[in-house]
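Lay summary. Proteins are chains of building blocks that fold into shapes, and those shapes determine what they do. In this project we predict the shape from the chain. Here is one chain we studied, written as its sequence of building blocks.
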Amino acid sequence: MRFVWWLVGLAVLAGGAYLYRPIADFGVETWLTIGITAATWSIVVFTSTVVDRIVAPNDGDSRGVFTALLSLAFASMGGVFVVAVHAQAAEKNWGTFGDFLGGVLNPVLTFLSFMALLFTIILQQREIHGAKEDGKVLQSQRHADRLSSERMQFENTFFQMVSIHNTIVNSIDVDRGPSKNPLRGRDCFKEFYDGMKATYDTDLSSDEMAKSLAAHDHIWKSYRNDLAHYYRYIYNIVRFINESDVDKTRYIRILRAQFSDFELVVMFYNGLIPLAAKSKEYVEYFSMLNNLPRELLFSPAHEKFYQPSAFDEKAPRQPLSFKDGAS
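And here is the predicted shape, written in a compact code that computers can read:
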């Protein structure tokens, strides 16, 4: 918009000069008047832009602006001298020209002193700009160091939790009686699966959800202490990942890699009980069953008990319904 007003002003000036007298009749005085008026109008229109470039330069200092102003000033003074020399030479009045020269040189020297002050301002601006740039670099480095430290702290805690989880798994045991060796660790989950499957197969109910819950309840009554501890710790590992500002998918995949096939099946049916409602949402949100062999489910229809996102990272996922941490 400022540029448009500048063009309008120049157009008005040119039109007024043309109406004043024909261009062929213009003398030196007329051209100087037009030039000075045009320059004044340009300064008026673009003053705010020039001030912005001086006060808050984009490149760190105002050398470009001051160079342009100094060049314009010397060019204007040079033009005045040329015109004066021609005028005085025509009139042979060199004494007057000497007075004119002295009257012009004094303001020039004053102007140069003023420009020296401005150059001092430029140097100060460069120092300030350099200090700001150094401050930005230092701030960026501190931010990077803080992120690195936070990530290192997260990973230390995460892998320690995974290690504790494996300890919990290894502490699970199943006593199968005097005629058989006891089971320990992940081997127990095959026993849990077989017990659940046997209960499901003997249930004549037509309600698949009720049959599944009854099958899980069969092992829950016998091994509640071990399974409750196991489920709670998995829940807290997932919650810790969810609350941390990290690449959640990466660490969820590491956690998923800890689970055997039969652990995933037991986890699947555990998520159906009311007490595990939040765990089920985490399972769906983070695709915790991504590696689950579907053929191990008691029925293919059971897959519908969960959202597709529970089995596929690329499937659309619903946001968590509870405020358990950042998602």
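What the prediction tells us: The CA atoms of residues 120 and 173 lie 82 Å apart.
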